[in-house]
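User: Hey, my collaborator sent me this sequence without any context and asked if I could get a structure. I don't really work with proteins. Can you help?
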Amino acid sequence: MEMGPDHQVFEQHSASGAFQDGVSRGWWRVVRMDWPQVWIAVSAVERPQSPSEYVFCFECSNYPQDAPTAVPWNVDSNCVLDRNLWPAGQGYVNTVFRPEWNPNALYLPTDRVALQCHENWKTEYPKAVWNPRKEITHYLGLIYDCLYSPDYRGTRRALSRN
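Assistant: No problem. I've predicted the 3D structure and written it out in structure-token form, which is a compact way to encode the shape of the chain:
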């Protein structure tokens, strides 16, 4: 089957030096691809009763013209991760990982679903907001930064037990 232009661009970006540098550093890795869905694991700093990485299901149709959208994913059950297992913490971390806002997207200015709800982000966060010149590493870098932030405390479930 022939790859469409969006899939071809994604393949080029995932073969790029920036993406592969993240792979070699252990920051992220592709778990599976069934275009336009791509499952990517992003590592997380060690926290009690929490995973060392989270898998995100990215929906990448019309990439990079349209921003991807991503959601924490349960690979074993092949469904959205239970909200109690989403990353949690304080400040920006709780802003990004908000299943009560939308259980199928992250609250980031680089996420397709979030951007559709916040047209003002284009002027308020011009460096963070998605545009067709961005690559998937831009989105992954924002997730990685959250999961290594001092504000990241582990899963919602782990926090509720403390």
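In plain terms: The CA atoms of residues 22 and 28 lie 6 Å apart. You can pass these tokens on to your collaborator as they are.
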